[in-house]
Amino acid sequence: MKHRLGIFFIALMLMVIAGCSDGPKPEPRLKDYMKNWQSMKFDKMYSMLSDKSKKEITKDEFVKKYSAIYGGIKAQDVSIKPVIPKEEPEPDKNGNITYTYTVKMDTLAGPVQYKNKIKMKAQEKKDKKDWYIDWDYSQIFPGMAKGDKVRVQTNKAKRGEILDRNGNGLAVNGVASQVGIVPQNLPANKDASKEQLAKVLGIDKKTIDNALNASWVQPGFFVPIKTIAEEDPRLKKVAKIKGVSTQSIETRVYPYKEAASHLTGFVQPIKAEELEKLKSEGYESTDVIGRRGLEKFYEKQLRGKNGGLIRIVDSGENEKRTVAKKEAVDGKSVTLNIDMYLQSDLYNQMKKDVGTASAINPVTGEVLALVNSPGFDPNDFVLGISGSQYQKLEKDPKKPMLNRFAYTYAPGSTFKPITASIGLETNKLNPNKEVAISGKKWQKKGWDKKFVTRVSAVPSVNLEKALMYSDNIYFAQTALAIGKEDMVKGAEKFGFNEDMPFDLDFENSSLKKEDIDSEGMLADTGYGQGRVEMNILHLGLSYTPFINNGNLIAPQLVKADNSKAKVWKKNVISPETATRIRSDLVKVVGDKRGTGYKPPLKNIVLAGKTGTAELKSKIGEKGQENGYFVAFNQEQPSLLVSMMIENVQDKGGSHYVVPKVKNAFKEYMKEKPLR
User: Fold this and answer.
1) Which one, of 312, 324, 299, lies nearest residue 162 by Cα?
2) Mean pLDDT across the stretch 570-599?
3) What is residue 94's predicted lDDT score, i.e. its pLDDT?
4) What is each CA distance from 226 to 197, 549, 614, in whole angstroms?
5) What pTM was estimated for this model as a whole?
6) Is the pLDDT of residue 211 over 80?
7) pLDDT band, very low/low/confident/very high, at 407 (cuts 50, 70, 90)
8) How far is CA 196 from each of CA 10, 193, 269, 301, rounded to the nearest angstrom?
9) Exactly one of 413, 421, 470, 542 is catalytic; which is it?
10) Where do the domains of the chain lie, and which CATH numbers do they carry?
11) Residue 413 annotated among the catalytic residues of the structure
C-alpha cells in the first residue's frame, strides 16, 4: 500500500510541474508592459500591476503622475526594452522574478538613459493565472520614492541679435513693461479701474475681464493684460490707476522701428500648427519664431537651443539627485554690412513718400541699405498688435506692410545704360554718330498708333547727349537695331531672368523673349519700359560693371572679416565699354544739361542716371509715374544708391528724387568718406 501511495505522490508532483511549465510565461507579459510604457499607454500599464501595487497607487494617480512627468520633461523617442536572459530567472522566496530593463529617451534636458530592475509575480485572477508587475515609485526614475517629486526647469537660450556694420542693434534682446492686475489689489469700485485701464491701453474692458476670469487666476496672482514698450508714455497714466501694476519682461526690441522694419522683420510666439511641425527641432510652446525679413531667414542661427534641468526632490524640496542637465546654447548674432546711419538717412529722405531704395559699396558688393517707405513698427507685432491696429495698416493706401525692395518694377530710363552697353558690345551702336531726330515724337514706318516720345527736342544726339538728355527715341531706335534675341541675351549677362545670389528672397529682374511680342514692345524696352522689370537692389548692382572693368559684383549682406568682392558675372561688358558708359554717366550729373545736374553738389563728383517709368494700361492715357535716380561717387567709388519713388507725376518726375539721393551722399561722405 505504501509503495502505491509513493507512486501516486510522484505522479501528482509530475502533473503539477507539468502544469506549471504549461502555464503563462513572464517574458511575454513583461514585453507587453514595456511596449505599453514605450507608447505611453499608462492606463494599460496600470492594468498589468499586481494587487499589492494597486493598493499603493490608484489608477487615476498612476496615469496622472506618468503623464505629468513625461509631458513636463518633454519625453520623445522613448525606448523601453527588457533584458531577456538565456535562461528564465529563478523565483525568490516570495515567488517574484526580477528582470533588468533599459530606458532611453530624449528630454528637454538632453538624453536620459539608465538600467533598472523590475519585479514580476504570478497571480490568479478570475480563475486565470498570469504574471503581474510589482510596481513602486523607483520605476519612474531609479532612486525615486513615494512622496518624491520630479522638478523640471527650462533654461531659455538667448536669441542672437542682428547688428549693423558699426555694432548698432537692429534687432536686440531688451525689456518691455507688462501691464497687469493683481485681483486682490483692485479697489472696491473694480469696474472703474478696469474702464480707465481699457481706455489708456486702447482695448475693450471685456479683454480685461476675460484675462481676470481665466481658470488659473488666484487673488494674489499677477494677471498680464498688455505688454508695451518701456518708453511708452502711457505708462505714466497706467501708474495712476488703482490696482494696476507693471513688471519688466524680456522681449525682442527693434530700435530703428519703421526705418528697418522690412529688413529685420519681427518675431512672434510660435503657433500651435507650427509647433506641431517643428517639435522635433526643439521648439516649445513658449518660444518665439521669426516671421519676416532677417528674423525669418536667419531663424536657425538666431534662435539657439534651450537647455533644461530634471531633478528628483523629496517632500521637503531637498534635491535627491539630478536626472539630466543640459546647458542652453545661445543663438548666434548676425552682423550685417548694413550701415544704419545711411539706412536711417535714406528713410528720412523718403518717409513722406512711397518708394524703396538700396545702397551698396559698388567695389566690394557690401549691401549698405535696403529701405522701404512707408514702414511699420515691428515692436507692435512683438508686443501684441491689436486687430484695429493691424486693420489700419492693411487698409492704408500707402501699403506700409508691402516689402517693395523685394519686388520688381519697370526701371524707366535707368535701364538706358544697359541698352547702350548691349548696343556697344554687339556693334549695333556707334557712340560717336550723331543721330538726327526731329521733334518730340517718333514713329517707325509701318507702325499704326504707336509713337515714342521724348522730353527734349534736340536736333541730333550721340550716345553721350542721349544719356544726358535721357532721349527715349535714341534708345528705342538702339533697341530695334540690336534686335530681340541680342537684347535678351545682353540683359541676361547683367543677371536678368535668374536668381540673384543673395540671402533674402527677391523677385527676379526679368526681360524675356516671349514678353517682347512686337517691335513697339522692343522699342519701349530700350528705354526701360515695355516688359523689362528690375528689383531695386539688382538695379544698383547692374551699374557695377561700369565701375569694375566689366564685372558684375555679387551683393554681400553679412559682414565678413575680409570684405573682398565676389563676382557674380565676369566680363559682362568690355573694359572699353565700361569706361565709355561711366564717362557719359558723369556728364548726366555733372553737366548743366544733364537730367541729374540739379541741385549741383560741391566736392563730390557723382555719376548716375535718372529715370521715370510711366505705368498705364492704354496708349495715350496718362498713368502713374515712378521716379528713379541711380548714382555713385566717381572718385574712389564707395557708395552707389538706387532710389525709386512712386507717384512723382505731379512732383517733377525723376527730378523729385535726385535731391534726396544727393542729400544722402552729402551726409554719408561727410561722416565717414571711406567707411
Assistant:
1) 299
2) 97
3) 85
4) 10, 57, 46
5) 0.85
6) yes
7) very high
8) 94, 5, 28, 43
9) 413
10) 26-144 (3.10.450.100), 147-168+255-335 (3.90.1310.10), 171-253 (3.30.1390.30), 340-380+401-671 (3.40.710.10)
11) yes
Encode pLDDT of 44-91 as tens digits: 999 999 999 999 999 999 999 999 999 999 898 999 999 999 888 888
Q: Answer yes or no: is pLDDT of 278 > 50.
A: yes
Q: How far apart are CA 91 and CA 380, in angstroms?
A: 68
Comparing CA positions, the residue from 112, 34, 45 lying closest to residue 72 is 112
Calpha distance 197→241 (Å, rounded): 7
**C-alpha cell belonging to residue 600:** 549741383
- Residue 520, C-beta contacts closer than 8 angstroms, at least 6 positions apart: 447, 450
Calculate the alpha carbon distances from 54 to 50, 123, 141, 507 in Å: 6, 13, 19, 66
Residues 540 and 370: beta-carbon distance below 8 Å: no
Alpha-carbon gap, residue 428 to 478, rounded angstroms: 7
Task: Enumerate the β-bridge partners of residue 105.
Answer: 112
3-state helix, strand, coil in the chain (%, to 5): 35, 25, 40
Average pLDDT score over the chain = 92
Instruction: Please check the confidence at residue 16 and state whether its pLDDT lies above 80.
Output: no
Question: Which pLDDT score is estimated for 674?
Answer: 43
φ/ψ of residue 59, rounded to 5:
-60, -45
> How far, CA to CA in Å, does 373 sit from each of 69, 193, 295, 368?
51, 40, 20, 17
The distance from CA 669 to its chain's CA centroid, rounded to whole angstroms, is 32
Name the one residue in this structure whose C-alpha cell is 539630466: 324
pLDDT tens by residue, 356-373:
999 999 999 999 999 999
Place of cell 563728383: 605
Distance CA 623, CA 391 (A): 29
No. of H helices and E strands in the chain?
Answer: 23, 27
